[in-house]
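Renewal narrative, Specific Aim 1. Our central claim is that a sequence can be written position by position from structural information alone. The example that follows is taken directly from our test logs and has not been curated for this report. It begins with the C-alpha cells describing the chain, in the order in which they were read.
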C-alpha cells in the first residue's frame, strides 16, 4: 500500500456529532473554523466552488480515503455554506463507512491529508 505521499497534514480532530451519524444527512462535516490545516490547493478549492446545474449546490470532487481498517475507497468531498460558515463535507459513501466501521456519536476521529501525484488523499483515524 505504499503511496509515496507528501505534504502530510492533520486536517481536523473532532468528536462525531449526532448530525455526522444521522443517515438522512449522509455526511461527515469538516467545519473550516475547526480545521487545523487547509489541505486543498487554491485550484482544488476553486473547483469546489463550481455549482451543480440547479445553481444552488456545489459539485464536489472524488478523492481517495483510507479508512480506519486501511481499506481504500473513493469518497465525495463537497463544500457547503451554512449561514456565514463554510464547511467541507465527506459525502457518499459516508453512511456505509460509518456503519461498517462501527462509528458512533461521541467517537473521536482524526482526518489527515496527504498528496499523491498532486492529488489530495485523506486518512480517517478513530482514536
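The sequence written for that structure reads:
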Amino acid at each position: 500500500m505504499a503511496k509515496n505521499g507528501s505534504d502530510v497534514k492533520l486536517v481536523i480532530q473532532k468528536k462525531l456529532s449526532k448530525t455526522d451519524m444521522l443517515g438522512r444527512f449522509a455526511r461527515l462535516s469538516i467545519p473550516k473554523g475547526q480545521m487545523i490545516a487547509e489541505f486543498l490547493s487554491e485550484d482544488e478549492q476553486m473547483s469546489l466552488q463550481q455549482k451543480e446545474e440547479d445553481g444552488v449546490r456545489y459539485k464536489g470532487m472524488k478523492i481517495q480515503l483510507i479508512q480506519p481498517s486501511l481499506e481504500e475507497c473513493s469518497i465525495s468531498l463537497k463544500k457547503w455554506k451554512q449561514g456565514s460558515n463554510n464547511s467541507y463535507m465527506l459525502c457518499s459513501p459516508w453512511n456505509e463507512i460509518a456503519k461498517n466501521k462501527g462509528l458512533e456519536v461521541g467517537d473521536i476521529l482524526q482526518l489527515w491529508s496527504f498528496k499523491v501525484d498532486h492529488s489530495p488523499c485523506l486518512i480517517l483515524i478513530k482514536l
